Amino acid sequence: MINQVVLVGRLTKDPELRYTADGAAVVNITLAVTRNFRNAEGGIDTDFVQCTLWRKVAENTANYCRKGSIIGVMGRIQTRNYEKKDGQRVFVTEVVAESVRFMGGKTHAWIEHS
After folding, report:
1. Lower CB density within 10 Å: C or N end of the chain?
2. Along the 114 residues of the chain, how does pLDDT read in single tens digits?
3. Kindly report the CA angle at 113 between 101 and 9, in degrees rounded to 5?
4. SUPFAM superfamilies in the record, alphabetically (predicted)?
5. CA 71, CA 78: separation in Å to the nearest integer?
């Protein structure tokens, strides 16, 4: 089976780096991705895609990107669910990034997990 995603979009806010209990760097971002076609009213819609970045990818994104930065994300779709304290089940679909490319500067280097 194939599970691969490639997106290019803008960060909706500054990335916030945090670390798990075992020391792994992680960043959760929302990427605003403009569709490449017009809707029925003639406008252009934007999708807001949740992405999770780990380790070196997370650290570099937090250090070099800010709200509005254009980045490319290569990764995979992941679904999960959990139960809230009130018993309600929550379903989450997100992209887990395997590499990120910073698109705003003179060089465009892919930063990958190591």
Report:
1. N
2. 999 999 999 999 999 999 999 999 999 999 999 998 888 898 899 999 999 999 999 999 999 999 999 999 999 999 999 999 999 999 999 999 999 999 875 545 555 554
3. 25
4. Nucleic acid-binding proteins
5. 20
Structure tokens, 12: 């909706």
* pLDDT value at residue 112: 57
Distance, CA of 27 to CA of 103 (rounded, Å): 18
Judge residue 99's burial from the number of C-beta atoms within 10 Å of its C-beta, 0-12 exposed, 13-18 middle, 19 or more buried.
middle
Distance between CA atoms of 104 and 88, rounded to whole angstroms?
Answer: 41
Measured distance CA(47)–CA(64) in Å, rounded = 23
Gap between the Cα atoms of 88 and 6, Å rounded: 32
> pTM for the full model?
0.81
What is each CA distance from 98 to 35, 39, 54, 55, 72, in whole angstroms?
Answer: 22, 31, 8, 10, 11
Domains of the chain, start order = 3-100 (2.40.50.140)
